[in-house]
Structure formats: structure tokens, C-alpha cells
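Let us work through a complete example step by step.
Step 1: write down the sequence.
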Amino acid sequence: MGSEGKNGDTVGGNKEEKKSIAMIFGCADFVDILLMLLGTLGAIGDGMSTNCLLLYASRLFNSLGYGNTPENHGNFMVEVDKCSLFFVYLGLAVMVVAFMEGYCWSKTSERQVLKIRYKYLEAVLRQEVGYFESQEATTSEIIDGISKHTSLIQEVLSEKVPKFLMHASQFISGLVFSMYFSWRLSLVALPTILLLVIPGIIYGKYLLYLSNESFKEYGKANAIVEQALGSIKTVYSSTAEANIIERYSRILDQTTRIGLKKGFAKGLAVGSTGLAFAIWALLAWYGSRLVMYNKESGGQIYTASIAFVLGGL
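Step 2: predict the structure and record it as C-alpha cells.
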């Protein structure tokens, strides 16, 4: 029976989490949906921009490699002019999609958070009078709840969501473009992408665990302060200041150790990106063999390597 209760709690928790995520977008109207669609297109275009640049970069590298020689069929400057013009057009396009990404998500976050604030305040005002006389519903608690929670939602909508879409687009398009430039090189290097992805996943899970532990410790410290301030006369009369300060210091020492663990985990995660140099070494070695024995161009090998590594990072 106990295990069933625990499983039931887990399922219920997952349902509540999904419900809370859906409620973030619950205040979106037609204009907000349109803004989110445009912002999503802008984020996807922004993420794909670097890999789109590599399309003509490979042609430019090949032209520069051949130079003004018969192998280049006399089109050296013509090809360079085409690539340069494409870079200008791409820069203008990136300016548009990046503006769409930033403006649309920021605008819809402001609109949705404003509606959430109104609903939050209406829900509070609909409570019974006894609710406002309780210790849990002081004026500062209500104001702090409205401002803190809605600011967190606005940060998610205006920054986290578009960044996630942009990086996901860059990751997927990096693999696709790498396959397009040189499918042999991409297939050989594909298993190595785990060396870039797995450390990030482990760091994210561990950081979430440490953040929860830190939150719990700070909650204990705040409880001690509230108890001490709530019965300050008793504390002074029993001369318990030293005991309370000692308990509070022990909890803060624990949060300090958690902070050091966070820094250590972040250092390992950032340092693990140095594995990209090992992947570069593999790509350079195998790419040179493809150029020698499979007659692939150096520009395509180089741009396939860039698309693969940047997508993985």
C-alpha cells in the first residue's frame, strides 16, 4: 500500500507539473499566439543562420583554395562576389529574424504576465475576510508573491523559451547541414556528439538537485529567523541569542558547501567542452582522407566539421 501511495504521488506530481506548464500559456489570446508563432520562426531562423552561412562559405573556401587557376574555370572573382553578396543578404535576414525573436517573445510575455497579474489579484480579492487576517496573507506577502512569481514567468517567456528554440534549431540544423556537406564525415563523427551532450545533461540534473538542496537549507535558515523575531522577548529573556546564531551559522555553512559543489560542477561542465578539440582532431584526420581518396572538396569538409561541432556545443 505504501508503494502505491508513493507512485500515486509521483503520477499526481507529474500531472500537476504538466498542468502548471500549460497554465503559463493559459492567458494567451489570438494576438499572443500570433506573436509566439512569429517569435518561434525568428528563433528557428536565428539558430539556422550560422549553418546557412556555411553554404556559401564552403564555396568561398574552395574558390580561395584554387585561386585564379584553370581548375577554377576562370570564375575566381565571380564566385567571390556571389558569396560576398550572399553574406550581406544573410546579415539583413538575420537582423529581421533576430528582431522577431526578441520583440515578439518580449511583447507576448508582457501581455500574458499582465493578464496573470490581474487574475492573481482578482483571486486574492475574492478570498474571505478571515484570509487577510491570517499570518499567511499579509500585505507584503501578497505583493511579494505577485511580483516575484510573475517576474519569473516573464523571464521564462521572454528569455528562456526563445533561447531554447534557437539552440535546438542550431543543434538540429547543424547535424542536417553536416550530413549535407559530407555524409561520410558526419556518420563517422556522429557517436562523438555524446561527448558533448552527456556532460551538459549530467550538469543540468546535478545543478537542479543542488539548487533544491540550497532552497531547503535557506528555508530552514529563514524559519529560524522568523521564530527568533516572532518571539524576540523570549529570546532575550532566556539569553538564547548565541544558540540561535550558532544554529543559523551552521545552516549557512551548509549552503556555502552547496555553492562550492555548484562551482565545481560548472567547472567540469565548461571544461568538458574541451573535448571539442579531440573531435576536431578526428574530423581533420578523416576529412583529409576523404579529400585524398574520395575526391571531396576541402571547403565542404571544413564547413561540415564546423556545423557538426557548433551544433554539438
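Step 3: interpret the result. The two ends are 46 Å apart (CA to CA).
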